[in-house]
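Quick question, first post here. What does this chain look like in 3D?
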Amino acid sequence: MRWLEIAVAIVGVAVLVVSTFGSSRVFRAGSATKAAHVAEEEEWEALRHDGSRAVAQILALARPGFRLVTWRGDSPNMAAAELLIAFTDSDGENHRVTLRTFIDQELLANFSGGRPLPIVYAKNQTLRVAVDRDRTQLEIPSTIDA
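> Answer (accepted):
Ran it through. Tokens below.
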């Protein structure tokens, strides 16, 4: 009977190690995705007053594989989303850009392919683009008093 107890203990330790490793990978992947999507909001803050405005066309909307949903601003249901957009800048150049941002789950239908999307952009050394939150609703404000 002693060998059975040892075998069960070894299997238990193996399961613990595998589950710990797996959950840490999921956490790291979620953190990296969240950081990439938060960067777009910070880009908008930087471009908000000095950037050029345009209207892009949404070509596609995608969600990351593990469908990250988090609490951002006033909304508990902000879904990570990737928008493939196309727009023409003030110089007449055409651009295709992927924006990674958070959109309230209830508003995702408003970002389907073919719809217009107000953006703000700057062309310095690199093209910087963000959703123009002054003209586009990405978040439904919470009515819950905290």
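The beta strands are 52-62, 69-72, 75-88, 94-104, 116-123, 127-131.
The two ends are 57 Å apart (CA to CA).
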